[in-house]
# Entry
Amino acid sequence: VLFKSTSDTHSEGAEKASPIPDIDVSEIFGNDATADASAEAAEQHGSSLMGAADNVLRDAFAGSVGPQTFREHIAAFSSAINWGEPFIRCLLALHVVMILLAVIFSRKKIFGGQVATFGLLATLVWRTEWLNTYGAAHWRDFATQNYFDKGGVFVGVMYAAPLMLICLCMIIDMVHEASGLLVQVKRLEIKKKEQKNMNGTENPKKVKRRSKKED
# Structure
């Protein structure tokens, strides 16, 4: 037979082909111990990087300087307030109205108006803590941000302090008026005493003159 069949040719080629060598997978990818060691090394490297990043951020925040002087504190406080919102404008309008009432009653010497205004101011200052609590619970209804902290800094500076200053000015004005009235009363008393003394010295002379004329 000059030619072999196709099946014989394939069988001979398969016999002549070299067998596939066995490949150890652990040699390529490494064993479990090596994988665990590499994972631990990566975690340590990552943790060291995170620690370095935390240190950098800590140094950056520590290096940041906040307001130090009184002017800087005032500037920081004023910049945190939205002066254009209606709530702040209404609060400032309240102070303006109270100042106008105090000045008008003081200039026109209306004592009843002064007492009523002072009582209203004292009541508003007395309710400061309640207003701070109410504002912290309902600030979304009238403001764009929460100005009402637990310490009551905003309410103390923007609400209570101006009202207390107006009360102090009214007290000083009342004391000044009272001292002026006291001086006037003392002057009137001195004038009356002088008039009595003058009348007492003139009466004996008149009596003597009348007696001489009769003689």
Remarks:
- Residues 118 and 167 are 6 Å apart (CA to CA).
- The radius of gyration is 49 Å.
- The chain has eight helices and no strands.
- Confidence is low (pLDDT under 50) at residues 1-18, 23-30.
